[in-house]
């Protein structure tokens, strides 16, 4: 099975697809990227998953949806460098950081994505979800120590989850009048600046930046 070609149905601006790309780049796995976007939805996508969304990994006869599951699947194949830390405590820390990101950062951020355009913006919704987002980042701040990796001294699945989320937190704040929001969270800010020295993280951040600029028309 591991010798079968792999394809990732991918959207460059999706933080969940970026999570998978970061894992793939860090592991050096050969994966064909199939871009999915408005007006560019491969017809087979609807037959592969009832969820009708990306990211989606296809590996021979195996079809894996959901970014966390995809990253764990790649780990279970034992391809490239391991992105799992050693020891039960470190594994629990890794999973906790990703869980905080998925539940308490990405959920309010998803609501805010729909409010980027000032025309028709629901300010009450923005205020509510921004407060939830800041609370989630505050919880993350408690579990980061400012080191350049989220867990231990090397890249892990926690970094794969957090890097795209923090990219968007850093960029979405100014869209709602919140300048430099990460600077209010020193450990998280130090972590985010440090992780960008890793080539795979830097590559994903550059891809997200380019995709966001295209979306914003700049």
Structural write-up:
This protein has a 4-stranded mixed beta sheet, covered by helices on one side. The protein has helices at 15-27, 45-48, 67-76, 88-113, 123-143, 157-175, 186-195, 199-216, and strands at residues 6-10, 31-35, 56-59, 62-65. It folds into 2 domains: 6-76, Glutaredoxin (3-Layer(aba) Sandwich), CATH 3.40.30.10; 88-216, Up-down Bundle (Glutathione S-transferase Yfyf (Class Pi), Chain A, domain 2). It contains 8 helices and 4 strands; from the N terminus they run E-H-E-H-E-E-H-H-H-H-H-H. It is globular, with a radius of gyration of 17 Å. Helix 1 (15-27) links the parallel strand 1 and strand 2 (31-35).
Keywords for this structure?
four-stranded mixed sheet; Glutathione S-transferase Yfyf (Class Pi), Chain A, domain 2; alpha+beta; single chain; Glutaredoxin; 2 domains
Low-confidence stretches: none
Q: Could you report the average pLDDT, rounded to the nearest whole number?
A: 94
Strand content: 5-15%
Helix content: 55-70%
Can you describe this structure in just a few lines?
This protein has 218 residues and is an alpha+beta fold.
Secondary structure layout:
Blueprint: E1 6-10, H1 15-27, E2 31-35, H2 45-48, E3 56-59, E4 62-65, H3 67-76, H4 88-113, H5 123-143, H6 157-175, H7 186-195, H8 199-216
Parallel strand pairs: 1-2
Antiparallel strand pairs: 1-3, 3-4
């Amino acid at each position: 099975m591991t010798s079968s070609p792999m394809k990732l149905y991918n959207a460059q601006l999706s933080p969940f697809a970026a999570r998978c790309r970061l894992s793939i780049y860090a592991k050096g796995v050969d994966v064909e990227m199939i871009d999915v976007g408005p007006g560019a939805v491969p017809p087979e996508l609807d037959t592969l998953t009832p969820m009708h969304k990306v990211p989606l990994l296809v590996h021979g006869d195996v079809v894996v949806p959901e970014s966390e599951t995809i990253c764990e699947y790649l780990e279970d194949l034992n391809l490239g460098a391991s992105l799992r830390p050693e020891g039960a405590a470190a594994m629990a820390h890794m999973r906790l950081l990703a869980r905080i990101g998925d539940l308490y950062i990405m959920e309010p951020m998803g609501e805010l994505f729909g409010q980027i355009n000032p025309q028709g913006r629901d300010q009450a919704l923005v205020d509510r979800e921004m407060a939830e987002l800041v609370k989630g980042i505050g919880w993350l701040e408690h579990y980061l120590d400012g080191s350049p990796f989220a867990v231990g001294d090397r890249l892990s699945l926690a970094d794969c989850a957090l890097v795209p989320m923090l990219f968007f937190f850093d960029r979405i704040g100014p869209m709602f009048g919140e300048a430099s929001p990460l600077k209010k969270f020193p450990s998280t800010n130090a972590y985010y600046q440090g992780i960008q020295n890793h080539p795979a993280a830097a590559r994903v951040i550059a891809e997200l930046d380019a995709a966001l600029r295209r979306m914003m028309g700049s």
